[in-house]
Task: structure prediction
Amino acid sequence: MDHNFKNIEFMAHTNKDILELFEAALAQMQLPEEPKKLYDPIIYSMSGGGKRLRPVLLLTVNEAFGGDLNEAMHAALAVEIFHNFTLLHDDIMDNADVRRGKPSVYAKWGENIAILSGDAMLITAYKHLAQVSPASLPRVMQIFDDMALEVCEGQQYDMDFEGEKKVSVVDYMLMIERKTSALLSGSAMIGATMAQAQEEDIKKIYRFATELGLAFQLQDDVLDSYGDEALGKKIGGDILEGKQTFLMVQAMSRATEQQREVLRTTHLSSVLSDEQKIATIKALYDELEVKHASEQQIELRFERALSVLDTLSISDEKIQPLREFARNLMGRKK
Result:
């Protein structure tokens, strides 16, 4: 695992270019062949697609601040391997049979193998991180460790919320800041740190990625109930699970006690079909105008993220790929 990625020319890359460079580096990653039941699930999960948001952001930030993508590539691999490790363990906790449209590692190999392969992925992530240049390593390791712990905290809050009758909007935002935004903001900070960006710029990049991560998760919440199945997302899954999403949290804060009881219990009904359950909750969402409130929050967070970029100390030309990343993430054309 001591690859040097020396095939990357120093030039301004688009997000698409950086994704291709990362996929090429990932394809070079070598794992032992035995024991197969430990390493095959890792290869299976890492080759399962995904948007590679975190490594692409890390590398995009790194290049924007004049870093060397060859040197940053091991850190990019570390954050992507870590992200996929969290998904393996998430699927066990959620009893999830499907991940990215195919059987999850948990469904395919069972719980024990999913736990152990996940553990091996975490170790592999740290092995890549250890190959960061000695000058950057202490700070990068600190950022990575803080990020990893925040993700665990976010997951615990998410599980705690399952047993709560009512979750505040503030608590929900805190949870998704840890569970979703932390990986993006940590990746962005690592990219900037390895490029030896100014401390003020590193703080701003953290804010940019945090706000963008919040906008992304809130949009995902809305799309789960109001998206288009043609985009490959099954509508209403969160409703059927009785999940605490931004829509549900907003609805609970606006509802009468009678409406709250409907929001709390509809997914448990043995009389209603899945379609009726989804329709019942969405009718309440519409009545309480939570979709509109959610879209306003998404827009606010997205605009905040973009406005941070305008304050960076680098040229507008170097900032442009970061704007491109933000718009692509949110599905924006302009």
